């Protein structure tokens, strides 16, 4: 039977910020991650060691990672696209990484300038070194419920890519609705199909809220048995390759829903809300979290 505990993977400092126009200085990012550490979160994606030409916001990855307060029992994974990124990450003491690919060929080409198979080939040497170094590796599959270029993405393609990432050694596979087009029945069917090939405890869901479906999709996936959910404080982000795509589902809203369902997260919602409101101020925009708006209304 599924447990009542849900692990939130907080991706705001990486997936959220990578798509925000306002460039934040490193000390604000460090303050953000330190605040997130004090909420009770156990997994906080800290930054990304990709090419700074592709993602200028995270060019300060090394500085940020070096200066965050690393609490015992909390993981601070970082995104790594290739061996160069792995070396940069290891040079500052990273112990958990995330590799990423997509279920759609066209999206992969735009995002990382490689086909799906080429991107997985690139991970093989990274995975080998990670294994030798005792570094944990998480894997992302993007565009699991739709692609801005090819439209529909066959579930069989999602299953194939997720299975491959699991086979090459990712301990957890995050299934990403990158452009937020999914609806609950589709999300459930996709998760169910992947879970036939990759055990449910090794799966996570990652929704963006473009069409306002993210919480409904998460609920459907919780009912199917998933117990790891990615989200971003204040609902930051977007997708540079999908016009009109909004941010990740807000962590505050996910935690509020989970606690309302009687599920445990270990997260202090008040501290999370204060962090989200503070971040929105730093980005000079209104928070995308409905819970933060409700709880901080004057
Ligand atoms: P490329 O241009 O094909 O790479 O980029 P290259 O190997 O030809 O190298 C070009 C230049 O980049 C070289 O520098 C390299 O040294 C440098 P130059 O000689 O021109 O001065 N370079 C690097 N520099 C620093 N760190 C590195 C690195 N690698 C190469 N690691 C590459 C290929 C993969 C590097 C590039 O396409 C890239 O960095 N892409 C990242 C894009 C990205 O971060 N997208 C967002 C993440 S995915 C996502 O958000 C989805 C997710 O959230 C889930 C979901 O929502 O569904 C995970
Ligand atoms: Mg994302």
Automatic annotation (TrEMBL):
GO biological process, one term: ketone body biosynthetic process
Enzyme's top EC category: lyase
Its EC number(s): 4.1.3.4
GO molecular function, one term: hydroxymethylglutaryl-CoA lyase activity
InterPro entries reported in the protein's UniProt record: Aldolase_TIM, HMGL, PYR_CT
Coiled-coil segments: none
Pathway membership: Metabolic intermediate metabolism; (S)-3-hydroxy-3-methylglutaryl-CoA degradation; acetoacetate from (S)-3-hydroxy-3-methylglutaryl-CoA: step 1/1
Domain of life: Bacteria
Keywords: Lyase, Metal-binding
One Pfam family linked to the record: HMGL-like
Domain Pyruvate carboxyltransferase stretches: 6-273
PANTHER family in the cross-refs: HYDROXYMETHYLGLUTARYL-COA LYASE
Family to which the UniProt record says this protein belongs: Belongs to the HMG-CoA lyase family.
Name of the protein this chain belongs to: hydroxymethylglutaryl-CoA lyase
Lineage, highest ranks first: Bacteria, Pseudomonadati, Pseudomonadota, Gammaproteobacteria, Lysobacterales
């Amino acid at each position: 039977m599924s447990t009542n505990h849900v692990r939130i993977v907080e991706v705001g400092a990486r997936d959220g910020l990578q798509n925000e126009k306002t460039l934040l200085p490193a000390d604000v990012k460090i303050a953000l991650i330190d605040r997130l550490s004090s909420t009770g979160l156990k997994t906080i994606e800290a930054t990304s060691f990709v090419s700074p030409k592709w993602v200028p916001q995270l060019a300060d990855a090394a500085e940020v990672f070096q200066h965050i307060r690393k609490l015992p029992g909390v993981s601070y994974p970082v995104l790594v696209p290739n061996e160069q990124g792995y070396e940069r990450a290891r040079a500052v003491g990273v112990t958990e990484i995330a590799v990423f690919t997509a279920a759609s060929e066209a999206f992969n080409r735009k995002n990382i300038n490689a086909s799906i198979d080429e991107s997985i080939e690139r991970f093989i040497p990274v995975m080998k070194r990670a294994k030798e170094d005792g570094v944990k590796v998480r894997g992302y599959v993007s565009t699991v419920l739709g692609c801005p270029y090819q439209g529909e993405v066959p579930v069989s393609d999602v299953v194939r890519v997720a299975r491959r990432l699991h086979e090459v050694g990712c301990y957890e596979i995050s299934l990403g609705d990158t452009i937020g087009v999914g609806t609950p029945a589709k999300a459930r069917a996709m998760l169910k199909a992947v879970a036939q090939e990759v055990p449910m405890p090794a799966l996570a869901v990652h929704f963006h809220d473009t069409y306002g479906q993210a919480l409904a999709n998460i609920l459907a996936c919780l009912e199917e048995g998933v117990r790891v959910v990615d989200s971003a404080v204040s609902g930051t982000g977007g997708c540079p390759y999908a016009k009109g795509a909004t941010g990740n589902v807000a962590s505050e809203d996910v935690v509020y829903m989970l606690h309302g369902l009687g599920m445990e997260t270990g997260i202090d919602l008040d501290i999370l809300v204060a962090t989200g409101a503070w971040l929105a101020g730093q980005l000079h925009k209104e928070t995308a979290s409905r819970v933060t708006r409700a709880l901080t209304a004057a």
